[in-house]
From TrEMBL, chain A:
The keyword Zinc-finger does not apply. Belongs to the GatC family. SUPFAM superfamilies: Glu-tRNAGln amidotransferase C subunit. It comes from the Bacteria. It comes from Heliorestis convoluta. The keyword Ligase applies. It catalyses: L-aspartyl-tRNA(Asn) + L-glutamine + ATP + H2O = L-asparaginyl-tRNA(Asn) + L-glutamate + ADP + phosphate + 2 H(+); L-glutamyl-tRNA(Gln) + L-glutamine + ATP + H2O = L-glutaminyl-tRNA(Gln) + L-glutamate + ADP + phosphate + H(+). This is Aspartyl/glutamyl-tRNA(Asn/Gln) amidotransferase subunit C. Heterotrimer of A, B and C subunits. Keywords: ATP-binding, Ligase, Nucleotide-binding, Protein biosynthesis, Transferase.
Automatic annotation (TrEMBL), chain B:
One of its GO terms (molecular function) is glutaminyl-tRNA synthase (glutamine-hydrolyzing) activity. Allows the formation of correctly charged Gln-tRNA(Gln) through the transamidation of misacylated Glu-tRNA(Gln) in organisms which lack glutaminyl-tRNA synthetase. The reaction takes place in the presence of glutamine and ATP through an activated gamma-phospho-Glu-tRNA(Gln). Heterotrimer of A, B and C subunits. SUPFAM superfamilies: Amidase signature (AS) enzymes (SSF75304). GO terms for biological process: translation. The gene is gatA. Keywords: ATP-binding, Ligase, Nucleotide-binding, Protein biosynthesis, Transferase. The lineage of its organism: Bacteria, Bacillati, Bacillota, Clostridia, Eubacteriales. The keyword Transferase applies. This is Glutamyl-tRNA(Gln) amidotransferase subunit A.
Length: 94, 491
């Protein structure tokens, strides 16, 4: 089933991307081509195959619950596009 | 003496014997960097003043009679997706064009501790997404062997800088072939270590279950030396393997007599250029002459690796790149009325076309109703691909394939056809899905352009990959050639 323009617009909204008309057009064609190609995976019967999210098994790594120094506030906000008194500044929310 | 043509181990000997100083070395490589940079366009940020100061410190150490390590005073380049304290780390994206990390990635810290000297940060496909180094916010890097060709991607700047003599070695990252494919296109050594061998702390994440940092070098011995410096467990990376790493140089100069090398037939079929196939046949003959046995084998799920990868990698990317919202760092769009539109405008203006395409693809594959059909399905196929390798390594010491289906293609050729661009990594993707190590080294040339041979190994057996690569390198002479920098402007 092909991806529609409306679905591309919906996915863009979920991904917090604003697309121009031209981009919606282009991505609809390109994403459909890639997804069509990905449907090749349906050739395989994987009903009894477990999924692999990581190549090697991972174990939780625990450390002692000790308080250590964190990065200074000044350095944390140094890269912020907008900052005030050590806080990240964003447009008004309420 | 043209120091920029030499390998790190040769330069180390010259430093120890005091035939050259670290300052002379850095000056020579920096001069070469500046000389060819207008043609190659490998660097995003240069740190030459800092490099000269670091070289002076190494010279003081040598003068005071202290011993220096094998990479001490050696000029290097770092892909611009690894954090460098106080030095911009842009991921070749408008989104991070103004980002100056407050800390070093573990690999950078380790190389600094080893005394290596960074000459700068090198170009890449934006957020490591691409196969040609053309998806950079800056101008794309060129292939030093022929300037109108791409250097490969995404670590094109890392490969080109070593190939052109602008750095003695470099670091890149490999998510689907981004070290090996540019290494093949630029005629240098590129190693993708086993997943978990080298810490990813401070690497700007693309697809976390596939990404791996690794070295580019001019020869295999240098590759072993860089691995010695960067491999090892890191408590800052929860996926870092808690294992002991050997001295990788001990594998060099050992015979490969009696080795069984698997040659998966799926890597030699349709889509592989005749020049590449012919070079692989010659490489196999060379290995036979060294006493190895080459046996055809099968990795039956190879044809599913590309569609599998292009579901899993964008899915992980869509999640990893959700952090770019213009609040804490990086680019922020102006004139947003509210928070949500600030996020959307920032991301729309900050990300390039390929990044947006993959975010959209990943968001779709993970969205309600499609997760099972695409993402879960791909994870199951990943299991089958991994099992293919597990079975092959019960019989073989290593596997051999071409690194790429063709030589470097022309700039702009595949930019408007994502699927065709994705095909460039068809020989390398499976390795990332299985998490195993693989290396690409130069095996010959076609019409003056390098061709890479890929060796794939069992998990954590990078040493054996270096062993066979070194044996092959000693039996051939390809690696000793430098690009004439032909193209728009001859050297």
């Amino acid at each position: 089933m092909a991806l529609t323009r409306e679905e591309v617009e919906h996915v863009a909204k979920l991904a917090r991307l604003e697309l121009s008309e031209g981009e919606v057009e282009k991505y609809t064609v390109q994403l459909n081509a890639i997804l069509e190609y990905a449907r090749k995976l349906d050739d395989l019967d994987t009903s009894n195959v477990p999924p692999t999210a990581h190549a090697f098994p991972l174990e939780n790594i625990m450390r002692e619950d000790k308080v250590t120094a964190s990065m200074e506030q000044e350095r944390v906000v140094a890269n912020a596009p907008d900052e005030e008194e050590g806080f990240f500044k964003v447009p008004r929310i309420v | 003496m043209k120091l920029h043509t030499k390998c790190a181990h040769e330069l180390h000997d010259l430093l120890v014997s005091k035939e050259i100083s670290a300052t002379e070395l850095v000056n020579d490589v920096a001069a070469r960097l500046e000389d060819v940079e207008p043609k190659v366009l490998a660097f995003v940020t240069k740190t030459i003043d800092e490099a000269k100061a670091a070289a002076a410190r190494v010279d003081d150490k040598i003068a005071s009679g202290e011993k220096i390590g094998p990479l001490e005073g050696i000029p290097m380049a770092i892909k611009d997706n690894m954090c460098t304290e106080g030095v911009p780390t842009t991921c070749s994206s408008k989104m991070l064009h103004n980002f100056v990390p407050p800390y070093d990635a573990t690999v950078v810290r380790k190389l600094k501790e080893a005394g290596s000297i960074m000459l700068g940060k090198v170009n890449m496909d934006e957020f490591a997404m691409g196969s040609s180094c053309e998806n950079s916010w800056q101008e794309g890097t060129r292939n030093p062997w022929r300037l109108e060709r791409v250097p490969g991607g995404s670590s094109g700047g890392s490969a080109a800088s070593v190939s052109a003599g602008q750095a003695v070695f470099s670091l890149g990252s490999d998510t689907g072939g981004s070290i090996r494919q540019p290494a093949a296109f630029c005629g240098v050594v590129g190693l993708k270590p086993t997943y978990g061998s080298v810490s990813r702390y401070g690497l700007i994440a693309f697809a976390s279950s596939l990404d791996q940092i690794g070295p580019f070098s001019r020869d295999v011995r240098d590759c072993a030396l860089v691995m010695n410096a960067i491999a090892g467990h890191d408590p800052f990376d929860s996926t870092s393997a808690p294992i002991e790493h050997p001295d990788y140089t001990t594998f060099l100069d050992q015979s490969i007599k009696g080795w069984r090398i698997g040659v998966p037939k799926e890597y030699f079929g349709e889509g592989i250029d005749a020049d590449v196939s012919e070079t692989m046949q010659k490489a196999m003959k060379t290995l036979e002459s060294l006493g190895a046995e080459l046996i055809e084998c099968s990795l039956p799920h190879t044809e599913y690796a590309l569609p599998c990868y292009y579901i899993i990698a964008p899915a992980e990317a869509s999640s990893n790149l959700a952090r770019y919202d213009g609040v804490r760092y990086g680019f922020r769009a102006e004139e947003a009325e509210d928070l949500i539109s600030m996020f959307s405008k920032t991301r729309s203006e900050g990300f390039g076309e390929e990044v947006k395409r993959r975010i959209m693809l990943g968001t779709y594959a993970l969205s309600s109703g499609y997760y099972d059909a695409y993402y879960l399905k791909a994870l199951k196929v990943r299991t089958l691909i991994k099992q293919d390798f597990d079975r092959a390594f019960e019989k073989f010491d290593v596997l051999l394939s071409p690194t790429t289906p063709s030589v470097a293609f022309s700039c702009g050729d595949r930019l408007n056809n994502p699927l065709q661009m994705y095909q460039s990594d068809i020989c390398t993707l499976s390795v990332n899905l299985a998490g195993i190590p693989a290396i690409s080294i130069n095996a010959g040339f076609a019409d003056g352009l390098p061709i890479g041979v890929q060796f794939m190994g069992k998990p954590f057996e990078e040493g054996r990959l270096l062993q066979i690569s070194h044996a092959f390198e000693q039996a051939t002479s390809c690696h000793s050639q430098m690009p004439p920098l032909k193209g728009g402007c001859a050297e």
